[in-house]
Amino acid sequence: MTLFAFIYSIHVLAALVWVGGMFFAWMVLRPAAVKALEGPARLKLWVEVFPRFFAWVWVAVFILPIGGVGMIHMRFNGFETAPRYVQIMMGLYLVMTALFIRIQALQLPELRKAVLAEDWATGAATLGGIRRLVGINLLIGLLLVAIASARPMF
Questions:
Q1: What is residue 131's predicted lDDT score, i.e. its pLDDT?
Q2: What are the contacts of 137-140 at 24+ separation with CB within 8 A?
Q3: Are 152 and 5 in contact (CB under 8 A)?
Q4: Do residues 47 and 92 lie in contact, with contact meaning Cβ atoms separated by under 8 Å?
């Protein structure tokens, strides 16, 4: 395995963890939780789920730019010669990271506080806001994967 192939593989795996995790949460876990759990139990579930998932997202947040910059230098000899789709991918990564940090730093503590206080209405509203941002991030992530798949780095 070449160094480029190794970096590319790690990069793809990091993206898979982040985007795949959001897909699972949005399309599988959320509908199952809505069907199986009452509101308070559902909020408690998400307070437990998010920190576990976010630990893995942080790994992806750090690996993706390191791998991306490495591949840019190996494949295109730097940013100046990188094609437009690579620049678009970098911009979308920044948007996704900003949305993730907003959820992690602002909304998750608010959700945790509401659940601890058993303020279910505030918790539900906060979870709804998190769900919307995760949905936006999922769409951006799927777009990023589509761009990457249509224009491979090899």
A1: 97
A2: 137/22, 137/96, 137/99, 137/100, 138/19, 138/22, 138/23, 138/26, 140/92, 140/95, 140/96, 140/99
A3: no
A4: no
